[in-house]
Amino acid sequence: MIRTLLVSINQVVQEGSQELVEKWREQPDSFLWLDFQKTLDEQDVELLSSFGCHELAIKDAMRKRHPAKVEYFDDNTFVLFRGINSIEDKLTLTPQQIGFFIGERFLITIHSGRSISVDHYWTENRIPELVCNPMTLASNVMHYACGRYLEVVLDFEEQLAEAEDTMMSHGSDELMKELVAYRSQLRKLKRVFSYHEKLSGVLLERQLEKESEFVSATDDGEHLKHTLRDLFDRCERLHSLSGMYYEICGDLIDGYLSITSHQLNNTMKILTIITAIFVPLSFLAGLYGMNFEHIPELHYRYGYYVLLGTMGTIAAAMVYFFKRYRWF
User: Fold this and answer.
1) N or C: which end of the chain has fewer CB within 10 A?
2) What phi and psi, each to the nearest 5 degrees, are found at residue 81?
3) What are the pLDDT tens digits along the chain (328 aa)?
4) Do 97 and 83 form a contact (C-beta atoms < 8 A)?
5) Cα dihedral 167, 168, 172, 173 sign
6) What is the pTM of this model?
7) How many helices (H) and strands (E) does the chain have?
8) Distance from C-alpha of 304 to C-alpha of 295, rounded to nearest angstrom
9) In angstroms, rounded to a whole number, what is the distance separating the alpha carbons of residues 221 and 303?
10) How far apart are CA 35 and CA 309, in angstroms?
11) Distances (CA, A) of 285 to 86, 277, 300
12) Domains in the chain, start-ordered, CATH in brackets?
């Protein structure tokens, strides 16, 4: 599906399909938002080439998975961004790649299927103003996607706090498996947000250096700077939060393993002490349990009681010794 928004100099909005592209070419003061909601075919590639889009950038936009990046060309700026297609519990996110071709009078968005971030601004009341500022519009779409990421990450903080309390009180293997799954998702998010932070930083730095690049007559550039600054701050926060939560999950897993190991050591310590106490007793019992006829103490009248007393004394002495040195 291809859809377009054409905004005239008087900010009259026309919504349609590919036929509005010709009207946009005939009106040099108009602005166009061209949205591809499908996999690109040869005709689509030809259409993009007519806007001055580089063929390699088009190929990058067509790939299912590609790291987020930004590239500058003479007639447009290409931005590849990983948005969100769906959000589920436990940080399970389905990403959606969005390609932006940003020109002085046009914005082209490319994504497979419906994009919540794009749809959010497609019906925005300020759409005439936004379409007339393509770079600002693209920044707002990315900012909204990052906002959805941020909501999920902030909600996860409560789950992580509960997991931490549970782990300290009565941890379990099931909770550990859950933390390992969280850690795996956070590792992926950390990687994505790292790309986003670099991407937004490049956009902001470029705008600060070249104030007039792809800024329309309706924008003095200052608003775009603030928008890009806000986008960079949000991406930076997402990267730092995902990194912090990743480390917390790792610490909780290490803590659980340490507690389990400590409990096992205590158990082995008690078993070792019991074994140490009964070794000499077993030796005496085995010594006098041998079937030899000429054992000197064998015919002693009180030998049985003396042996029991000796064994009890040895056991009590060893228990006292272990307690004195706080071995248990």
Assistant:
1) N
2) -130, 145
3) 889 888 887 878 888 888 888 888 888 888 999 999 888 888 888 888 988 898 899 888 888 778 888 998 888 899 999 887 776 667 777 778 899 999 888 999 998 888 888 888 888 777 888 888 888 899 999 999 898 888 888 888 888 888 878 877 777 778 888 888 888 888 888 888 999 999 989 888 888 776 545 555 455 567 888 888 999 999 999 999 999 988 888 888 888 888 788 778 888 888 888 888 888 888 888 888 887 777 787 777 888 888 889 888 988 888 888 888 777 6
4) yes
5) positive
6) 0.77
7) 9, 7
8) 13
9) 105
10) 95
11) 72, 13, 16
12) 2-259 (3.30.460.20), 260-324 (1.20.58.340)
Residue corresponding to tokens 């006829």: 293
Rounded Cα gap, residues 13 and 18, in angstroms: 15
Neighbours of 120 (CB within 10 A): 15
Name the residue type at position 57: A
